[in-house]
Design a protein that fits this description.
D-Maltodextrin-Binding Protein, domain 2, single chain, about 15% strand, three-stranded parallel sheet, 12 helices
Amino acid sequence: MTWTSRGGRLRGWGGVAAMAVLCALASLALFCLPGRVGGTARATGAPDRVTAPDSAGASGGASAGHALTAAAAAADDEKPCAEKYENRPPAEDGATIAGIKERGELVVGVDQNSYHWAYRGTYGSEPEGFDIDLARRVAKEILGDANKVRFKTISTADRGPALGRDEKDKGRPAAERDAGASVDMVIRTMSITCGHIDNGIAFSTPYFETRQSLVVPQDSLIKGFGPTLRGSKLCVAKGSTAESFLAAQSEYYALKPVTKVPSQLDCLVELQLGVVNGVVTDSALAASQLAQDPGVKIADGNEGDAAHLPRPEFYGIAMRDSAPDLVGRVDHVLADYRKDTGPRGWRKSYEKWLAADLGNASVSPPSADEKIAW
């Protein structure tokens, strides 16, 4: 759907009616969650660097050997993913850029329910937020006019299909998949993951760092990812990295069946209705939920084995891997956007939309050469 609906800001119980959307069926995809190598993590809740516990010594060499073998196998599987991502294309105009210019507008898949990221502020207003600012910057650089952009509302699970990269069509030729695309790119708090890359999605260099967080009621006894989470019923957006994180950790935390909905804001409604005990979503989006409902909090008392805690993730602009000219051009736009200290640069957009919720948690953008531990 495109931006045709009219409505006010979604806050607390007022968002219930707006959340009545049809859930699209989506198959479970276990994505490799990326993490940051070195540096200082800007979000709370888990160590910056995730390392396996030292299992040699008292636990015996057999289990240690098994862990090392599994880690080596995982590294081999993830190597092609890293190579695809790190092989950055040049910023040269090609067929995709030419097509966008001929059309005269950039078509971007976005959210409409993520407060301060992509949402409608008041009745009759244009979409606004941090992701919207970025989309307009890309349109300005490619077409010379920040208003030459058409926004299409898509759910979390529909981000891949909107690019012509539906999981069920994974084996088809790229040209056939491209024919099913409805957007040029997706700017929708989308994490750079191996699962997406292996499905034919190409990402820009990162524009934001985050990690999975746990939103619970203010009076909840859940302290974070740890013993107090055991046996809980949680909610995630279908097709999100939160879904794949819980799929990997569900048995460890003895979770009840996870509720999966089209949008992370639908999860806030489920929490308000008492249907679930908590919501797992990116820390950046979790902060937005707190801004909308003072009755919830982030449970960040994470404890225990680092292997079962969230790792850092990075948002990227998603495009088709068959459009390297667009990927290269967007990388160039982001390089300028990070450095721009003026009213239309990354930092001013952060100050306008996110600083009140996140403070200094992410005061600077990740660098273009941010090292990602896949």
